[in-house]
Every structure is written in structure tokens, then in C-alpha cells.
User: Which sequence fits this backbone?
């Protein structure tokens, strides 16, 4: 792909086509790291950081299970702002299948609660979104990420 820089005020701008933006998960609010190797300009999305800590690990039938405490509010915000989660993505991951924007916002608002105070079902839903987030940060597509989440956290 060949591109030309365009004048933008006293600077020059490089426009990036939508398919490439989608491939890299870049949107209008994405923070970008711009660097060079001396010959090339390198533009890449900055990594998204979500706090995760191990709350409890237990041994069940010889299998170690680890319960992670996820900063669910930050994770959900990143899904919406960095990875551009829309109502269709939300509906596929959330077991109720709602495509209502109010439901998505209400769910996000409820994530500020302590994970120890929510139901097992809500924990499973958060885990599904976490699996999507993890897959997206590994450069999977939304479709692949949703399939991974549904497979890892059946409901």
C-alpha cells in the first residue's frame, strides 16, 4: 500500500484505511506508540493494561483452579473504547442476548461492585468478557474472541 502525507495545519498527517484500523484494533480514542527503527516509521496501538490478581487458588480433584480478581470496570471500558465493542458483540457474549445500549451501559455500571458481592452467574458473565478481552489483546478478531469466550465459559 502506497500512501502520501497530507497537510494538516502546520503538520503532516498519514491517513490509515479502515480495514487496517480494524485489523489492529485502532479507533479514534486509541493511544498509539510512534517510533522508528531509523528507516521506517512504526505506529502501533499501546498495550491495554487491566489489573488482575489471584484471589484464591484451590485444588479440586487434582486440578488447580485459580480465581482471578479482575478490574472488570477497566476491562469493560477497554472493550468498548479500544476494541470498539458494539451491541452485537455484547449480545453474543452476554447470555441474555440483549442488543439494547442501556443494558450494556447498566452492565458496565454494575462492574464497580466488589467481585465478592456478585452472583456466580454475574461472575461467569464477567469471565466471558475477560476471555474476549484476553483473546483480543492477542490480536484475535472479535469473531474468534467470542468463540473462545463461549467455549471457555459455557452457560
Assistant:
Amino acid at each position: 500500500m502506497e500512501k502520501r502525507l497530507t497537510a494538516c495545519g502546520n503538520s503532516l498527517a498519514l491517513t490509515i484505511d479502515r480495514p487496517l484500523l480494524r485489523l489492529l484494533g485502532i479507533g479514534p480514542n486509541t493511544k498509539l506508540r510512534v517510533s522508528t527503527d531509523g528507516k521506517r516509521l512504526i505506529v502501533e496501538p499501546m498495550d491495554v493494561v487491566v489489573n488482575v490478581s489471584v484471589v484464591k487458588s484451590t485444588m479440586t480433584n487434582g486440578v488447580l483452579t485459580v480465581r482471578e480478581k479482575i478490574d472488570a470496570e477497566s476491562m469493560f471500558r477497554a472493550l468498548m473504547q479500544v476494541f470498539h465493542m458494539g451491541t452485537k458483540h455484547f449480545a453474543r457474549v452476554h447470555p441474555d442476548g440483549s442488543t439494547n445500549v442501556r443494558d450494556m451501559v447498566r452492565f458496565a455500571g454494575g462492574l464497580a461492585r466488589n467481585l465478592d458481592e456478585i452472583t456466580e452467574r454475574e461472575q461467569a458473565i464477567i469471565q466471558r468478557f475477560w476471555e474476549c478481552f484476553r483473546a483480543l489483546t492477542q490480536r484475535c478478531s472479535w469473531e474468534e474472541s467470542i468463540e473462545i469466550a463461549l467455549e471457555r465459559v459455557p452457560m
Remarks:
- The longest helix spans residues 120-137.
- Strands lie at 6-8, 11-13, 32-36, 41-45, 52-60, 63-70.
- The chain has two domains: 6-45, 52-152.
